[in-house]
Amino acid sequence: MKLVVFDGDHVGVVEEDQVFDISQVVPRGPAWPPTFMNSLIHRWSELATQVDAARRAGDGIPLDAVRLEAPVPMPGHIVGAPANYRRHIEEMGARGSGRDMRELGFFLMAPSSVTGPGTRVVLPRDSVRDFHHECELAVVIGQRTKDVAVEDALSHVFGYSCLMDLTMRMTETLREERTMRKSFDTFTPMGPWILTADEVPDPQRLHLELFVNDERRQCASTGDMIVPVAEQIALVSSVMTLRPGDVIATGTPDGVGPIRPGDSVRIAISGIGGFAVDVVQADTCAPVRF
Ligand code: MN
Questions:
Q1: CA distances from 182 to 48, 82, 134, 172, 212 (A)
Q2: What secondary structure letter does DSSP report for 145?
């Protein structure tokens, strides 16, 4: 099943080119914080039958007539996998540490950096820095997960999505901490939907692609990950409790490169789907310029 958030806080099931609104069965708290998808995921086993009934009862809306939002508008955590594909480590050369995820562990990015498919990525105004695209498989956690064994870890996954981990690169003299460089607003486009895990028999057999203005920049298999998805979940849950709606960005393959205002960036993952975002620069300069 493909689950979308659309037109603000509506939740839908996508079938072919139609969205079926199932918002009436989604648990609702106050409008803020917008954690309704986290609640739906948390109560999925209890609500799945109602979701299915609501989907059957409704009329489809053409997918191109709605505005898709990030499928988890407010994840509690976004966990990032650094240096998890060998050829990306090689291409980073001296800009990277040369070490891989087994040595580096993981990092966090700000949940406020999430944005939806079809939105705009906003780069700082008049920046002379390099901003790079990273093409990643996103894992959406389905339940409270602490100290899960590798062999049980995939049963804690609710579903999968496409994620761009956009990054301000370090320079020789400016080596800011990773969390900051990846946490600008709009730097984590995610979507177009969550494909539930029952439709992804093996997350290590997916094909990732990323295009900038129709030029293919990244192309790889998730089978090339150094630390596979199940082991990433075991690692993270050894440190912190993962919760429904948390997202793991599982690392980027090689081919990362610059994005500039005016670019269109498109991600696609086999069996899941894809989306594009437009790159613009901010209207005004921030108080601290990057
Ligand atoms: Mn990344």
A1: 34, 12, 11, 18, 19
A2: B
Q: Model-level pTM?
A: 0.97
Residues with CB under 5 A from ligand 1 (ion): 134, 165, 252
Using the mean position of ligand 1's atoms as its centre, give its distance from the Cα of residue 249 in Å. Answer: 7
- Supply the DSSP symbol for 111: G
Q: Which residue type sits at 286?
A: A
Cis amide leading into 33 (omega within 30): yes
Beta bridge partners of 161: 138
pLDDT digits (tens, 9 = 90+) for 36-84: 999 999 999 999 999 999 999 988 999 999 999 999 999 999 999 999 9
Pairing of strands 114-115, 188-196: parallel
Residue 229 CA: distances (Å) to CA of 108, 134, 136, 161, 237: 16, 17, 12, 13, 12
Using DSSP's 3-state secondary structure scheme, residue 7 falls into coil
Q: Please give the Cα distance from 229 to 235 (Å, whole number).
A: 10
Q: Which residues of 201-236 are buried (b: 16+ CB within 10 A; e: fewer)?
A: eebeebebbbbbeeeebbebebebbbbbbbebbbbb
Q: Are strands 135-141 and 157-164 parallel, antiparallel or unpaired?
A: antiparallel
Distance 84 CA to ligand 1 centre (A): 9
229 membership: H or E segment, kind and range? helix 229-237
Report the alpha-carbon distance of residue 112 to residue 22 in Å, rounded: 25
